[in-house]
Structure formats: C-alpha cells, structure tokens
Amino acid sequence: MHSTELSKRHWLLIFTLTLLTFVLGTSEFVIVGILTDISSGLHITNAKAGTLVSAFAITFAITTPLVMSVTSHFPKRKWMLFLIGSFIILNALCVISTGYIMLLALRMMTAIVTGVLISLAMIVASETMPIAKRGLAISFVFGGFTLANVIGVPIGTVIAEWYNWNATFLLTTFLGGIAFLASFFILPNMVSQFRSSMRDQFSLLTHPRILMAFFIPSLGFGATYAVYTYLVPILKGMEAPSNSISLILFGYGFISIFSNILAGKIASYNAIGRLRLVFLVQAIVLVSLYWTTNNLILGLINIGLMSLMAILLTTSTQLYLIDLAGIYQPRATGLAASLMPVASNIGIAFGSAVGGIVYHQGNLISVTLVGGLIAIFASLLTFLSHHLDQKQMKPA
C-alpha cells in the first residue's frame, strides 16, 4: 500500500477485524461473569469451574504459536473463515453442554481457535494498511477486546442471570455468525507466506532481541494485573459502597477505551522510545495507590489513571514483534504476530500469581508496590531494546 490515507475499504476491514476481536474477547472473558452460574448448573465447586478459565489461558498460550507455525502458508482468508466457522460450532455445542468434561474440552478447543484468529487479525491489519496507519489500525483491532469487557461481558452476564449460563453461549454463537458474514464479504485475498519448517519458524524464538521484545508486554501486563486481579478487595478496603463496585469496574473498563486510542498514537512514531517513559509513568501511578487508597476520591482517580496506563503498550509491542521478525526471520511473521497475545496471557498469569503471594502474606495494599516494581523492570527492558535499535541504525 503506497497511499498514506485510509480508504473506505480500509475502514471496512478495520471495523470487521475489530468486530471479530470483540466477539472473540466476549467469548473468552464472559466465562468469569458466569462462573458461579456454571458451578451451580453443573453441580461443581467454584474452584473447579475456575479451571475453565485457567485451561483456556494455558491452551491459548501453548497452542497458538504452534498452530501459527504449522499453518503459516495457509491462504489467510479461507483459513480465517474456516476458523470462524469452527468458533460458531464450538460455541453452539457449549449451549447444549451438560457436563464439566464436555464444557472443558470445548473451551480448550475454542482457545486454540481464538488464539490463531487473533494472531491472523493482527497480521491482516499490519499487512493491508498503509505503513503510517498500521498503529491506528491495530489499536482499533485491540479495541475489540476492550469493548468485549465493557459491553460484551456485562450483556453475557445479564443473559445468564435472566435465563441460564447456556443462553450466554447462544449470544456468542450469534455474534460469531455476524462476524462470519462480515468477514466473508470484507476479508481480502492475501498472499500466503512461503512454507517453512518448524525449525525455521521456532528459530525466531532463539534470537535474544525477539525474547526481549516478548518480555516487554509480559512485564507490562504483569504490572497491571498484580493490582487489577485484587481490585475488588482493594475497593472494599477503601470503603467503597458495595453497590457501587460494579459501576466502578464499568468505569475502569470505559477508561481503558481511551487507553487503547492513546496506544495507537504512541505506536505512530518512535514507539519503543515512548514506551520507556510510559512504563515509568505506569510505575509511579501504581506505587501512588499505596497512599491514595487511604482516601476514596483520590484512590478512585488513581485507579482511573491505572486503567488509562494499562494497555498503552499493546499496539507498539505487537508491531515491534512483527517488525523484528521481518528483520531476523521474515518467514516467521505469523509466529511473531502470535507472540503478543501469548505474552499478555503469561503476564496476566505472572502478575496475578505474584500479587497473590503478596496478598496472602497479609498486606493487600503492598500489591501496588509490586506492580510498580514490575513496571520498572518493563521500562528497563524497553530502554535496553531502544538502545540496541539505535545502535543498529548507526552507520558502521
């Protein structure tokens, strides 16, 4: 694409990919909102129902790079339509699921489809847009996940309350059908990558620069989720009214929409250079919570700033991984596109686990200090990556 402006066709494609990530995000995240309904409906404990969440995340993280490597040469349009069709079938089967094992297996298969579709959506957004507009396009695509948390999950939760948890999967099945129709008419025919061996693909992961880039979003998400995972008990400790907590969480999600918009702006120029400062500001915001949570108003303002900082890294690190793959292993850009979603899942698991250790030591509010420390490590790693980029650009 030689043009620097987005055409009507570009915008239609962006909105189609955003719709797709909204549907995938709703399917992935809504399980948290209906967890107690599932546990009572299937006569299992909440802890056992919780394995549906962890199994999804683990399957997503392990299988996405593997499947992306094996299928890198597949025609993207046909492959995406097949996967969206599979998503519809799997969610429809969840509607009639009557047992834990069946639901677990269906969720794990859905995780495989979800991870690959997200990665393909990022590749399509990256490869079909004018270079100057890639950041904007990918920020919109990531915005689908934000909208899933703000709109999709609450609607799915309400449907479960009105009817039952099976009905929530009717919603995701219906949304999947809309995404399929939009994709069928809008997705372009794209030239597939050349076939390359698994060894060639995974050689990408042995390069130090790729590994450094991978851990930047891992640490960035880890910093946020060390605190966000325990936000409800923090709010209760701030003596926030119980009937206002849902509204506060909705506000948190709403503010993250603006975080996603800013993410596209940051990615437009010198993204990694800017992220160095983003992580430092994030560290200050998280550490400040240690004191501001003593006052309800100040604490809520600080939590709003935490949401604003939460996903500023997404677009920049997604493009960075793809661009680095173009330098070090051009045949593995598909694998590279899958690394950002995997890194975010690993970061979420890491941050939640570290925050949990601190929480269970008896000092809940110390999770804010841990989150700030992790953000500082993310900044240091970004400083190093930026320094190496600048060094590489200097003429010999």
From TrEMBL:
Pfam families found in the cross-reference section: MFS_1 (PF07690)
Transmembrane segments: 12-35, 47-67, 79-102, 108-125, 137-163, 169-189, 210-232, 244-263, 275-291, 297-322, 334-358, 364-384
CDD domains: MFS_NepI_like
Gene3D superfamilies per the UniProt record, alphabetical: MFS general substrate transporter like domains (1.20.1250.20)
Protein name according to UniProt: MFS family arabinose efflux permease
Alphabetical UniProt keywords: Cell membrane, Membrane, Transmembrane, Transmembrane helix, Transport
Organism lineage: Bacteria, Bacillati, Bacillota, Bacilli, Bacillales
Signal peptide: none
PROSITE patterns according to UniProt: MFS (PS50850)
InterPro entries the UniProt entry points to: MFS (IPR011701), MFS_dom (IPR020846), MFS_Efflux_Transporters (IPR050189), MFS_trans_sf (IPR036259)
Limits of the Major facilitator superfamily (MFS) profile domain: 13-390
Principal place of residence: membrane
